[in-house]
Amino acid sequence: MSIRLSSEIVVTYDNARGTTAIDFSCSGVSYTFHVGEVWKLPQPGRTAQGATQLASTSPQAIFEAINLKSQANLDLTSTAMTENVGLIDKTLKISSSCLLSSSGAQSLSPQGQSLMNKSASESTMKFTVDNFRTMTEGRIDFTQEHALKKKLLKEVHPVLAKTQVIKPMREGYLFPNQHPGKPAGEPPQVSQPISLELVSCHEVAQKAAALDGGSVMVVLVVATWAKKSQYSSSAHAQIVAEAAFADLQAMGEDRAKFCMAELSEAGAIHSSTKYINPLVKQYGVKEAPWLLMFSRGELVLSENVQGPNTGGIGFASRLRYMAFAKPRVLILEPAPTPQAAQAAASAAALESGGRLKGTIAAVNNFKLQMETQEVLRRTGFDFDLAINAGDALRHAAIAQPAYGIFLCSSEVAAGHFAEVTTRIRERNQKALNFICHDVKTLGPLEESNQTLQVLVDQKDLVAGVLRRPLTKSSLEGALVGNDDVRIHYPTCGVTKEALIDIVKKKLNAV
Q: What percent of the chain has pLDDT over 90?
């Protein structure tokens, strides 16, 4: 009985002998392997009655049939290596001509010395002993590594002396071309502030009447008793006025004259019964600090001037709070419908066998809300949460300051998304709008919400698509390279530049 397992293997079973023959034939090579009681098989050349003649193959025949072309090279290499090993062993062994002297010290006979002087395996080496001796000449003997490093640093490789720059070469190697100027990395030149002249309240009217035509006198009214605090508004107003006065002088604007008056030196500020302060009575000063400006002997300005945004002259120039320095974020994450909540609850329940009940995929909106808020807290953004489009529109209209980033769930309709983004852009043209999408649960955005995908392709309202769950690295990667969402400390109050602009306007009016 024979069975062909493949084109190369045929299995034959001999019922009389109880043996199995496996015939292998491939690429002109044929072998037969016997399995079972092979001693019952007839000898080669003989055939038993009723038995099939089976050819046998011995291991010796297989080895004799092997003919490798590289076998001769392998045998030659093996013989050479065996001889070289013998030479190395002969070199390592101590010669028998080594004798022990009567004093107990070892001595060598002349024959032994000649044998020990030359290595028996020297001829097998690529380099001779003289070559190795030459390569070791000049080496530094050391016992500790740190001592060798110090010696090399001090003697062998000393530190190079600093190159002295010759004065005629200070302009560089661009001669005869013109020097390009100072590098951009140098700090800008700032004018040294000029102290303000202190005048009494009664002298203000006299100095204003003595002004030349075309000149403007700026009087800063302060209160000394309020300067003791490090957060004094009068002290800050004095610093701003001194810096503005110095810059105007550096510009060559000599028509502007600055002085400072002490409000608390004479009379009361808010009392009108007695001891009325002349500045309060004549010029309507209400508080300190206060700014008065005179031209041609007449009062042209009397107020606590406001800065570009909010705050008077006594406020700090920068609000260094992270809540103001980074844009505010609006999150629109709609609350799940009762059907979606029921589907999410059924999907979260586990059977005893470990499989999920139900096949409806639903988004866990509450979990996504918590993840988004946690990421915004870690990145330092303040945020507001809206659970429907109406709340989002209300927040976008009344939030102070206006929102700079809008994170909207992909479950919101495209119309509501466009309304909210338009309302945010009305108050902040540089606001960035992102769509947060859960690809694992809802699938690709172009399949789950095609209208939103159209807005993404237009690249007008949508700045990008963020994958859920939102991570800190993915949010920062989407915002990188955008200067509108970087840290910007807003300006508050009257800065030096704002005060210079106010004085220049009065000078031009004159």
A: 19
Q: Is the pLDDT of residue 465 over 80?
A: yes
Task: Taking each helix axis as running N to C, give the angle between helix 472-479 and helix 365-379, from 0 to 180 degrees, rounded to the nearest 10.
Answer: 60
Q: Can you tell me whether residue 6 is helix, strand or coil?
A: coil
Q: Is the pLDDT of residue 351 over 60?
A: no
- Looking at residue 169, the DSSP 8-state letter turns out to be G
CA distances from 224 to 193, 235, 269 (A): 20, 9, 14
Amino acid 396: pLDDT: 93
State pLDDT tens for residues 8-54: 899 998 887 788 999 998 887 888 888 887 777 776 544 444 444 44
pLDDT per position as a tens digit, 145-179:
888 888 888 888 888 887 776 655 544 556 566 66
Contact status, residue 315 vs residue 498, Cβ threshold 8 Å: no
Q: Which domains does the chain carry?
A: 2-65 (no CATH), 74-134 (no CATH), 197-303 (3.40.30.10), 322-485 (3.40.50.2300)
Three-state SS string over 327-396 comes to CEEEEECCCCCHHHHHHHHHHHCECCCCCECCCCCCCCHHHHHHHHHHHHHHHCCCEEEECCHHHHHHHH
Residue bearing the bigger pLDDT, 224 or 380:
380
Terminal Cα-to-Cα distance of the chain (whole angstroms): 126
pLDDT at 340: 56
Q: Would the pLDDT of 60 be above 90?
A: no
Place of tokens 């045998």: 75
The whole-angstrom distance between residue 327's C-alpha and the CA centroid of its chain comes to 20
Distance CA 17, CA 50 (A): 10
- CA 162 from chain centre, in angstroms, equals 37
Q: Cα dihedral sign for 384, 390, 396, 400?
A: negative
Q: Give me the phi and psi of 192, to 5 degrees please.
A: -70, 125
Low-confidence winner among 182-186, 433-437, 488-492 (lowest mean pLDDT)? 182-186
Integer-rounded Cα Rg, in Å, for the chain is 49
What token pair was written down for 206?
């006299």
Query: Among 343, 337, 342, which residue's Cα sits nearest to residue 360?
Result: 343
| Residue bearing the bigger pLDDT, 377 or 335 | 377
Tally of CA atoms within 13 A in the half-sphere of 108 that contains its CB: 10
**Neighbouring residues of 301: CB distance < 8 A, sequence distance ≥ 6:** 291, 292, 293, 502, 506
Structure tokens at 297: 């002997």
431 CB-near residues (< 8 Å, 6+ apart) = 327, 402, 403, 404, 405, 406, 421, 424, 425
